[in-house]
Automatic annotation (TrEMBL):
GO terms for cellular component: plasma membrane. This is Chemotaxis protein PomA. Pfam families: MotA_ExbB, MotA_N. One of its GO terms (biological process) is bacterial-type flagellum-dependent swarming motility. Its main location: membrane. Keywords: Cell membrane, Chemotaxis, Flagellar rotation, Hydrogen ion transport, Ion transport, Membrane, Transmembrane, Transmembrane helix, Transport. Belongs to the MotA family. It is found in: Cell membrane.
């Protein structure tokens, strides 16, 4: 589980709610029509701009942020070094028997066992990276759209409230509460955009960069094993992908 994402969302929401409670009643910030305009309008605009399949894929990617642990570059380097040790000790064909849930790593082991050429490995890498970027870009684009639509509908809700407020100018006592309700839609839209939608899009983009890096390590490691399956040389070469302070010597 990605605790940083969970901690950020809960802390941000907790601070906002805490500030509201310290300054007055929390019930003042609850308004059904305002929520309907922001949530309903944002959802409607999202369905117009994106196919339902992309929306479902984006939210599936969002839930994976919490359910899946981020695999670091150093961990991938260590795995490739162990594969180099197996190939050196038992031969390249032994890599066909390696069991892993990582589809890309399994494909890399098969390429090594088949003694594939560097160009084939390079082409396979490009295809995998392009496919991964395309899948992840869908989720990022959907949440960016949500981050754009929600403040816009918050402003629309505020304009609706202001029009209704101006229609009650003959009743000065109702102007204050009416203005407060009108501003709530802007508050809802800004909160959803800046605390949830845009940060999730940024997190998905960061995960994409990390997974692309891991793919490059896997396939560079595969080429290195084919050229010279010395585990020490494989580690030295692949360690260049890892920041110096994060490098380890562990197996």
């Amino acid at each position: 589980m990605d605790f940083a994402t969970l901690l950020g969302l809960t802390t941000g929401l907790g601070l906002v709610v805490g500030a509201i409670i310290m300054g007055g009643s929390f019930l003042q910030f609850l308004d059904g029509p305002s929520a309907m305009i922001v949530l309903g309008g944002t959802t409607a605009a999202l369905c117009v701009s994106h196919p339902i399949e992309e929306v479902l894929q984006a939210f599936n990617a969002f839930f994976k942020i919490f359910s899946s642990r981020k695999v670091t570059a150093q961990e991938v380097v260590n795995v490739m070094v162990r594969i180099a040790e197996i190939s050196r000790r038992e031969g390249l064909l032994a890599l066909e028997n390696i069991r892993t849930d990582n589809v890309v790593l399994k494909k890399a082991c098969k390429l090594i066992a088949d003694s594939a050429g560097p160009q084939l490995i390079h082409d396979t890498l490009r295809i995998e990276i392009h496919s991964l970027k395309r899948r992840h870009q869908i989720g990022e684009t959907v949440f960016k759209s949500l981050g754009t639509f929600s403040p816009a509908f918050g402003l629309i809700g505020t304009l609706i409230g202001l029009v209704q407020m101006l229609g009650r100018l003959n009743d000065p006592k109702s102007l204050g509460p009416a203005m407060a309700v009108a501003l709530l839609t802007t508050f809802y839209g800004a909160l959803l955009s800046n605390l949830f939608f845009l940060p999730v899009a940024a997190k998905l983009r960061a995960r994409t960069y990390q997974e692309v890096l891991n793919l490059e390590i896997i396939f560079e490691g595969a080429r290195c094993i084919l050229q010279n399956n010395n585990p020490l040389l494989v580690r030295d070469k692949l360690s260049s992908f890892v920041p110096p302070k994060e490098r380890t010597v562990g197996r």
